[in-house]
Design goal:
By secondary structure, this protein is of the alpha+beta class. It has 16 helices and 13 strands. Helix 3 runs antiparallel to helix 4 and helix 6 runs parallel beside helix 7.
C-alpha cells in the first residue's frame, strides 16, 4: 500500500495493518508527518507540530511491536497517529487556546481525555488549530493563519474544531479529537465531509479542569467513518473522580453498535428551525434524501421539530459569559471576544467562580481515593450569641461566616455525602458536634460508621433536654 492510500485509510484499518506487521508505527508516522510538512502550510490545520516527539514515540512502539508475541494484548489503536485540539493540554506541547499571546505556553500535564488517547496506543502528531477560546464556528484566530477547507481552500473548515476536521479530511491524520460547545464538532465535520460525534453530557470527562460553561461543551471524535468515530468515542468515554456530570457505561461498546441493525424507529424531521429562515435548497434536499432512505429502511418518518426559540437568549448568555469565565485577560483577546466578555461581566464572574470551585472539588474528591471517611468539625467555634454580629458590616459578617463554617462548604461543593454527630457538651452545656464525610455516593458506609459511633459514645441524640 502506497503512502497516499495509507494516509486515507481508516484508523481501525491502520491499527490492523500494524498488528499484522504490514506497516510499522514509525513508517506510518513518517507518512503523516511528511504530508503535514507538504500540505499544512496551505491549510493551517495544525497550530503546533510535534514531529520529534511523535517519531520518538513511534520508534518505541515499533520496537515494542517487534518484541511482543501477544498482539491482541496491545491497546486498540497501537501505533496509529492522531492529533489533539488546541483547547486541551498535552504534556510538553504548547497550549494557546487560539490566543497569539499564549503561543509559547508549554504545559507539563495531560488532560484526562489526552491520557486516555495515549493509553489507547495513539501517537500524537501535534495540536490542531481552533478559534480563539473555541468561541466561533470558523477557525480564524487573530495572529494565526486561517484554517482552510481541504475541499476548497477559499472556504472555511468550520470551527471551533476546524483544524481537526481539516487535518483528517486532508489525510494529515486519520482521526482526531475535538470538542463541541455549540456545534464545534458537528459543523466542521459537515464542512469537511467527516463523521463527527457530539456525545451526551457526562459521557467524556473534562478532567482535570472544571466546567465553566454550565455543561454545554464536551469532547468528541472526528473521523472518516462511523466505526472510527465510534471507536474513538469508546476510548475517550468514562467517569473520572470529581466529574460534575457522568453517565453509566453502555451495555456494549459504541463500536459494537455499528455492527447492529436497529429495530424500526419513529423518526421526526424538519428543514424549518423556528424562528430562523429556511436553509439553502441543497441542504433541504439532503434532509429529504435522508428521510427517503430511512423510510425505505422501514422507519416511520414524521415532520416535526421542537421550538428552539426560547433557547436563543440563555445560550447566548452562557456563550458570552464563557469568554470572561475562562480567566483570560480581555486585553489579549480579539475585539469580538473582548466585546462578548464585556457584555457579561457579572455573569462571567459567577461562572468563573463555578469553574474554580469545580477544580478545587476535584482535589477534595480525589482525597477519597486513599480514604473511606473523613472526620471533621462541623464549625470552627461554638455557637455565637443571638445578635452577636448584628452591628457588623456586611463584609465583616460574610468574613465571619466563612471562617465559622469553613469545614462544611467543601462537602457541598464536591457533592460528597456527610453526616453530623453530637459528641458531648461544652462547659456551657452546648453540644459539640463532628461530621463524617464519605466517598462519592457511599452513604451506606457513612451510616454504618455513624451507627457504630452512636452505640459507644455519649451521644446527646437520645437525651431529653430539660427546659
Amino acid at each position: 500500500m502506497n503512502s497516499l492510500d495509507l494516509a486515507f485509510t481508516p484508523a481501525l484499518e491502520l491499527a490492523k495493518l500494524i498488528r499484522n506487521r504490514q506497516i510499522s508505527p514509525l513508517e506510518l508516522t513518517q507518512v503523516y508527518l511528511d504530508r503535514i510538512q507538504q500540505y499544512d502550510p496551505k491549510l493551517g490545520s495544525f497550530f503546533a507540530i510535534a514531529g520529534e516527539m511523535a517519531m520518538a514515540d513511534a520508534k518505541i512502539k515499533t520496537e515494542q511491536l517487534a518484541q511482543t508475541s501477544e498482539i491482541n494484548a496491545l491497546p486498540p489503536f497501537f501505533g496509529v497517529p492522531t492529533a489533539i485540539k488546541d483547547l486541551n493540554a498535552v504534556a510538553q506541547m504548547p497550549l494557546s487556546y487560539g490566543i497569539s499571546a499564549f503561543k509559547d505556553n508549554v504545559v507539563n500535564y495531560d488532560d484526562e481525555v489526552v491520557t486516555r488517547i495515549k493509553e489507547a496506543g495513539f501517537i500524537i502528531l501535534g495540536k490542531t488549530a481552533t478559534s480563539q477560546l473555541g468561541s466561533f464556528p470558523y477557525t480564524e484566530a487573530p495572529g494565526f493563519p486561517p484554517t482552510r477547507n481541504p475541499w476548497h481552500r477559499d472556504y472555511v473548515a468550520g470551527g471551533s474544531s476546524g483544524g481537526a476536521a481539516a487535518a483528517v479530511a486532508a489525510g494529515l491524520c486519520p482521526i482526531a479529537q475535538g470538542s463541541d460547545g455549540g456545534g464545534s464538532i458537528r459543523i466542521p465535520a459537515a464542512c469537511c465531509g467527516l463523521v463527527g460525534i457530539k456525545p451526551s453530557r457526562g459521557r467524556i470527562s473534562n478532567a482535570p479542569v472544571g466546567d465553566f460553561q454550565s455543561g454545554i461543551s464536551t469532547h468528541g471524535p472526528l473521523g472518516r467513518t462511523v466505526a472510527d468515530a465510534a471507536a474513538l468515542l469508546d476510548v475517550m468515554s468514562g467517569y473520572v473522580t470529581g466529574d460534575p456530570y457522568w453517565l453509566v457505561s453502555p451495555e456494549i461498546s459504541f463500536l459494537a453498535a455499528t455492527r447492529q441493525s436497529p429495530i424500526p424507529l419513529k423518526i421526526a424531521f424538519s428543514t424549518k428551525i423556528s424562528p430562523f429562515p429556511e436553509p439553502e435548497w441543497v441542504i433541504k434536499e439532503a434532509v429529504h434524501r435522508t428521510v427517503k432512505i430511512l423510510a425505505e429502511m422501514g422507519h416511520e418518518l414524521e415532520p416535526s421539530c421542537p421550538n428552539f426559540q426560547e433557547l436563543i437568549n440563555p445560550f447566548k448568555q452562557i456563550w458570552q459569559a464563557g469568554i470572561l469565565a475562562s480567566g483570560v485577560p480581555l486585553k489579549v483577546l480579539s475585539p469580538i471576544n473582548q466585546w462578548l466578555g464585556e457584555q457579561a461581566e457579572m455573569t462571567g464572574k459567577y461562572l468563573q467562580a463555578v469553574h474554580q470551585m469545580q477544580i478545587v472539588s476535584r482535589q477534595i474528591v480525589a482525597f477519597f481515593d486513599r480514604f473511606d471517611l473523613l472526620v471533621l468539625p462541623v464549625y470552627l467555634q461554638q455557637p455565637i450569641k443571638v445578635g452577636e454580629w448584628a452591628n457588623l458590616s456586611p463584609e465583616e459578617v460574610v468574613e465571619n461566616i466563612i471562617k465559622w463554617i469553613a469545614p462544611c462548604p467543601p462537602c457541598n461543593a464536591s457533592g460528597l455525602p456527610g453526616i453530623t454527630l453530637s459528641m458531648g457538651q461544652d462547659e456551657k452545656g452546648l453540644p459539640v458536634g463532628i461530621q463524617l464525610i464519605g466517598k462519592p455516593a457511599d452513604e451506606l458506609t457513612l451510616i454504618r460508621v455513624a451507627s457504630q459511633l452512636e452505640q459507644v459514645t455519649d451521644s446527646l441524640s437520645f437525651k431529653m433536654i430539660e427546659l
